Amino acid sequence: MSTKTYFTLFFLVIMTSCTVFTKAIPQPKREFRGVWIATVANIDWPKNGADAVAKQKEDYLNILDYYNKLHFNAVIVQIRTAGDAFYPSAYAPWSRFLTGTEGEAKEDHPDLLSWMILEAHKRGFEFHAWLNPYRATFDENIEVLSASHDYFQHPEWMLKYGKKNYYNPGLPKVQNHLAAIIKETLDNYDIDAIHFDDYFYPYKIKGEIFQDSLAYRTYARPNQSVDNWRRANIDSLVKKVHATIKSTKPWVQFGISPFGVWKNNNTDPKGSDTRAGQTTYEDLYADPILWMEKGWIDYLAPQIYWSLEYPPASHRKLIKWWGGQPKLTNLYVGNGVYKIRNNADKAWKKKKEVPNQLKLSRQTSNIDGNIFFSAKSLMQDHKDVVNYMKRKYYRNIALPPTSMDVQNHDPFKTLITDFTETKEAIAFNIDASDITVHFALIYRIRKKDNSVVLTNKKPIAKVYLNAENKHRILKREFQNKKHIALTFADRYERESEPIVVHLKYDQKR
Predict the structure, then answer these.
(1) Nearest to 114, CA basis, from 129, 100, 102, 135
(2) Lateral strand order in the sheet of 333-335
(3) Which has the closest alpha carbon to 263: 248, 278, 253?
(4) Distance CA 143, CA 322 (A)
(5) Cα-flanking dihedrals φ and ψ of residue 390, to 5°?
(6) How big is the chain by its Cα radius of gyration, in Å?
């Protein structure tokens, strides 16, 4: 064999080895990994409102378990779609998308939402309650509505636009009504966040007028333009909801997911280098930049549902634009995974389109994670995309970010008492002063460690702790590790100082 041939073969072997053993991209310890579970029109869940409760539970758990295996840490579940509710409410009828018939509860399980939240928490997820505030009806089939629906109870609140009816955002009574709905949800359910999507004033329909002129004449300030008045109405609701949340349960976050383009730079030089047909500021009358500046939200998740190089609205350019805004709140990216191999843009046919979007998010310093729309999209036949994404980006557990107002906290101290170890589990009490502990986090450590610093370590498990005094963790959560450190996360997702535990694994029952 000639020297030239030898070195050629050697080079090929080295290159092949590097390809095969390429390391996974380093993962941050904290990163938001969320998925929207859309219930309107039974997009994701339940598959049919008429399904038995047992079938609905099975389908819901299938979604949770699927995303748990992908190491997601939050579910954003739609609990109000169009003037309805997925829970018993004094302000809205039962949703037909849950019960089959609007206004009628399922006899065998009148309140599924409490169970849904608990099952999410058991798997380490945050549960974000997603409400659509302004959409009152989904279509023109008014006959399916309950007599208790606001369409009949408060027709003066309704404005028809296109084929849907909307709550008039310009009416103070509507704003108070929506704030009361939020308060009811907070009072009755152990949620981690309130979440709004991009539906504020409706997307514009050519040739149609949104008939809110009477409210404008009644409530607008002197010399206030209709556009500024409409934006002020949305601002007022956002401010009111934020105040309602923080005065009721201050640890509950408020997140909004607006349309991905604030303004195009051909109408405002501060806008993005895009040519979107509609924008969130000028057409939907929503101003998320102001909400960040005022501190009215805990996170923003613009829906950047286009491919990386899509000419009118490039995902790459929009990531750069949003990431370049002042860091005033947590910022997540909404990714349109429903377009995978289901869109005229050929970029969505590529296995690495979504993974490369995740890579870009991680490379942009002000971006703290991603949310996928919608749940069923990855559960379809896209195993190659999912497997690649998990191997490269979601190999390990990640903790959700804390909201910015508590990010500079000092780790709180805990003490575990009455510790016992059996063959199957450990049990203990927690003394954490005034801190309400929500999850236990488990880290692998070395045998000789009696104290540890976990700054760059990632947990191997996250375990939900109920409100009982005596906590119990099954040893299977420790993945056969004898030497672990325990930390505890409170309702703000703040992490305590670690406690070292050396297990025996030889205890009898």
Answers:
(1) 129
(2) 330-331, 299-300, 253-256, 193-196, 126-131, 74-80, 32-37, 369-372, 333-335
(3) 278
(4) 43
(5) -65, -45
(6) 25
